[in-house]
Amino acid sequence: MPDSQAITAGQFVQLVVKYEWRFRGFVATMLASTSDIDEVVQNTLLVAWEKLKDFSYTDSTPDESFVRWVCTIARYQSLRLHQQRVGTSLIFDDTLVERLTATQLEEAPLLEEQRTALKGCIEKLADDDKDLVRRRYTSGQTVEELAGYAGKTKSAVYKSLKRIRNLLMRCIESTTRQEGF
Questions:
Q1: 38 or 63: whose pLDDT is higher?
Q2: What phi and psi, each to the nearest 5 degrees, are found at residue 151?
Q3: Residue pLDDT, tens place only, 81-118
Q4: For residue 177, is pLDDT > 80?
Q5: Which long-range contacts (CB under 8 A, 24 or more apart) does 149-153 make?
Q6: Between residues 101 and 59, which one has the greater pLDDT?
Q7: For 134, which DSSP code?
Q8: What are the contacts of 49-54 at 24+ separation with CB within 8 A?
Q9: 91 with 30: CB under 8 angstroms?
Q10: At what angle do helices 108-124 and 94-106 cross, to 10 degrees?
Q11: Which tens digit of pLDDT belongs to each residue from 73-86?
Q12: Is residue 9 a contact partner of residue 22, using CB atoms and an 8 Å limit?
């Protein structure tokens, strides 16, 4: 059995930057509100930082062990937030949470490939489509705001977003298929 290894503060930061999207995705399976997700992720990373000396791994790299460890902390932080908000500690039973965690970890390579493909596919869009995507999904503008900005009806904006999402989905599927996923 390999010896247990610790990580440095620098490795912690690198792993957080590399995998924050996975922690956030895991928390999003338990909470609906973006502000709650942000709060839990922030609290989770603070707890992980404070308990860094307790983390060790035996694999060749700390990556998957680190993600599992942080997701475990995130689970308890989510439960804690839910209990504070509604006075009960039950969100999902332990079996479901374990399944969600395992699925999220198993699907990580595909999800990472899809995220990379999405970035490339967005770059291939026409400038107006890129702008619409950025305004809707990065800046969070509403369809009403986009319609006013573009001088279009809400219906036309919905149709444009649907067309763009379909283009992106086909591009992502094609790209990931070429990469063997």
A1: 38
A2: 70, 35
A3: 877 776 544 456 667 766 776 776 677 777 778 888 99
A4: yes
A5: none
A6: 59
A7: I
A8: 49/12, 52/7, 52/9, 52/12, 53/6
A9: yes
A10: 60
A11: 998 898 888 777 76
A12: no
Distance CA 35, CA 26 (A): 15
In Å, the largest CA–CA distance within the chain is 65
User: What DSSP state is assigned to residue 180?
Assistant: T
- How many angstroms separate the CA atoms of 77 and 56, rounded? 21
C-beta separation of 28 from 37 below 8 A: yes
Residues 6+ apart with CB under 8 A from 88: 82
Q: Are 70 and 48 in contact (CB under 8 A)?
A: yes
140: left (phi over 0), alpha (psi -120 to 50) or beta: left
Which tens digits make up the pLDDT trace of 140-165? 889 999 999 999 999 999 999 999 99
Alpha helices in the chain (DSSP H): 9-28, 34-50, 63-86, 94-106, 108-124, 127-133, 143-150, 154-178
Angle between the N-to-C axes of helices 9-28 and 108-124, in degrees from 0 to 180, rounded to the nearest 10:
80
